[in-house]
Amino acid sequence: MLTLMVTVFLSLLDTQIVATALPRVVSDLGGLDQFAWVTTGYLIGGSAAVPVYGKLGDLLGRKRVLIASTVVFLLGSALCGLAQTMGQLIAYRVVQGIGSGGLFISVLAIIGEMFSPREGARYYGWFSLTFGAASLAGPTLGGLLTELVGWRWVFFVNLPVGAVVLLVLSTLLHLPARRHEAHIDHAGVVLLVLTVVGLNLLTGWAGVTYAWSSPVIVGLAAGSAIAMVLFVLSQRRAVDPVIPLRLFTNRTFTTVVILGFISGFVGLGLINYLVLWLQTVLGLDAEESGLALTAMMLAVVLTSYLSTKVIGHTGSYRWFPALSMAVFAIAAVLFSTAGPSTGTLLAVVYMLLFGIAGGLNAQALSLAARNTASMRDIGAVQGTAALMRQLGTALGVSFFAAVMSGRLGAGLHDRLGTSGVHIDKNGSLAPEVVAELSTPLRVELAGVYADSLRVVFYAVIPMVLIGLVVSLFLKDVKLAGGHAPTEPETSSAAEPAGSVTRGDS
């Protein structure tokens, strides 16, 4: 189990470790206008790969898929360390992300296969602690490696650790082999990847790189919609679909997927705006706002870990998502009433509420999803749930950016336009312009940002209230106990088509 957690740690670490190395990367390779894609490419590769790897694990065996994805991840890491241009680095980060997605979902599915949902709650708690360790260690480790041995070792450091992981997985991880014939849904894989990549590019570019009405954005929207429709149609005909549509006949699974989307939308999608609020409204510097964000992440990790303990003890997860949405709503209302006069301590308390809300359902939804799955569908169930959370995050970031930018541009023109301050074509102020503002104008600027971000928090409230209503549809299906079957594939191959879920239907 320790090896599995180290595997997850590598996957999660690389979402954080690169951030502190990026300035040095840009200095060496150039491409300042492209550097954001070093992170975006990694996330897109991972989100597209997660449901595919999940299903491949169901068909081909999870050990085989975990080892293959580890190899892809290490290959991507090596190539990233050898990159000579920014374009190469971005392409190799996509490869690394594809491997990372396989690491993440395979470990979740292996826990689901090795343990019953109730027993697995303890290991999902370890998963939360691993996430916290990666989130805290990533920026610091990235900075140290960059300063001591160079930014390329931010990627090379994965190689020796990954080699040990591969050796242990190959020799000590024993899982049942697949005994039924595998029918890989090649058309479904291609259409799903096109849909996910298209949606991620759409949400990342719309209103930022390209105008909403530009041919690129309209084309991406149309292409993604067509790919999505074709994907759904292909899943109806496939022998072993990537995302079996029969899963959605289970009310609990459908509810979990919707809640996961909303959680990603308002939780992960809002983090950057909380930091922006601290820096622009309260005037905190990067270090101070970073400490506040660290406190919030600790709240996420601790709450998530404790919630898995309670769920494992009681066998019940039903009220955790509802409580999460209620706390999200309270935090959003509090932030919507805050402004420049709000004290730093009070703002940190509000952020802790956001962290607690995120932690309450971080693993509860994964456990609920696992509890609905037959042994043959664990990977598909976990992959679908993870994909919907990631899509919610991408859409949340795009939506909040659109909401804020419109209000921010109008506010800057109304309150600072007559002062002679240069407002760029995107309706914002360049950092060097902000640095030269007089104290009265800085106060005005803080007010503009407070008003603009207030609209963002207003937009969160109806979303979480919808989530609260949806969460009430979760039935109180106790987590299954006992031990996981030793040969799940044999039994699952013989299951009738309708025998796909545990709980309600």
Automatic annotation (TrEMBL):
A molecular-function term among this protein's GO annotations: transmembrane transporter activity
Ranges of residues in domain Major facilitator superfamily (MFS) profile: 1-479
SUPFAM superfamilies the record matches: MFS general substrate transporter
Compartment(s): Cell membrane
UniProt keywords, alphabetically: Cell membrane, Membrane, Transmembrane, Transmembrane helix, Transport
Transmembrane segments: 35-53, 65-84, 90-111, 123-145, 151-175, 187-206, 212-233, 253-278, 290-307, 319-339, 345-369, 390-410, 455-474
Region (Disordered): 482-505
CDD domains (UniProt xref): MFS_Azr1_MDR_like
One cellular component (GO) term of this entry: plasma membrane
Membrane topology qualifier: Multi-pass membrane protein
Keyword Glycoprotein: no
Homology family: Belongs to the major facilitator superfamily. TCR/Tet family.
Name of the protein described by the UniProt record: Major facilitator superfamily (MFS) profile domain-containing protein
Organism annotation: Streptomyces griseochromogenes
